[in-house]
């Protein structure tokens, strides 16, 4: 998985609790992304980062926040987990977001269940 | 309406058959087109990439883009049970500076021995 790890790989949590997912890369890529994948919806972008401390919202960012204090780490926080946030979360990295550079490498995913 | 439409399947074919997958899209600004393969409980991996219109072949895989019809296809020849996976199309515009990809929902393919 292209030097990307995600932790935890599985988590069950209760409604209303905060949850933090971690993405760690060893590729020194500038761009990092958080997606969620749900049946019938494919992959939807939650937040992305284009550098240390530089982040922005994707299409489904409500209820999520992110932080990137180091190039290699990108954290996704569910501030108060809800059952609608039960999903599989994927982190992805990309060397560049411009021009012909197209490839995003995906991590193994985190399966989150909110009860 | 979604920007990218993809039939979810499942698409079941016998081993050795040709698998035909496709996506339609509505945004004429899309210029980069990709196909990802995702095995069960794994992350997606890039399979094929095409810029603008035309065909691209890589081994048993052929990707086609028809921009006039806003339609892209992926063909898998001589399909194998190891091709059983979900295939996602993805696309982007040249002006998105941070690499935003728009994904289809994915088509599940089952190749039976």
Could you tell me the CATH topology label of chain A. Answer: Immunoglobulin-like
Distance, first to last CA of chain A: 29 Å
What percent of the residues of chain B sit in helical stretches (DSSP H or I)? Answer: under 10%
The largest interface is: A-B, 31 and 27 residues
Number of helices of chain A: 0
- CATH first level of chain B: which class? Mainly Beta
Secondary-structure arrangement, i.e. CATH architecture of chain B: Sandwich
CATH architectural arrangement of chain A: Sandwich
What would your notes on this structure say?
The complex is a heterodimer of chains A (115) and B (113). Chain A is mostly beta strands. Chain A has a single domain, classed as Immunoglobulin-like. Chain A has strands spanning 4-7, 10-13, 19-25, 31-38, 42-51, 54-57, 64-70, 73-78, 87-94, 105-106, 110-114. In chain A, strands 2, 4, 5, 6, 9, 10 and 11 form a seven-stranded mixed β-sheet that branches. In chain A, strands 1-3-8-7 form a four-stranded antiparallel β-sheet, with no helix packed on it. Chain B is mostly beta strands and 113 residues long. Chain B has one domain: Immunoglobulins (Immunoglobulin-like, Sandwich), CATH 2.60.40.10. Helix content of chain B is 0%, strand content 54%. Chain B is built from no helices and eleven strands. In chain B, strands 2, 4, 5, 9, 10 and 11 form a six-stranded mixed β-sheet that branches. Chain B has a five-stranded antiparallel β-sheet with strand order 1-3-8-7-6, with no helix packed on it. Chain B starts with a strand and ends with a strand. The mean pLDDT of chain B is 92. The A-B interface holds A 1, 4, 31, 33, 40-45, 48, 50, 56, 58, 90, 92, 94, 96-109 and B 4, 6, 8, 32, 34, 41-46, 49, 51, 88, 90, 92, 94, 96-101, 103-106.
Keywords for this entry:
heterodimer, A: 115 residues, mainly beta, Immunoglobulin-like, 7-stranded mixed β-sheet, 4-stranded antiparallel β-sheet, B: 113 residues, 6-stranded mixed β-sheet, 5-stranded antiparallel β-sheet, 54% strand
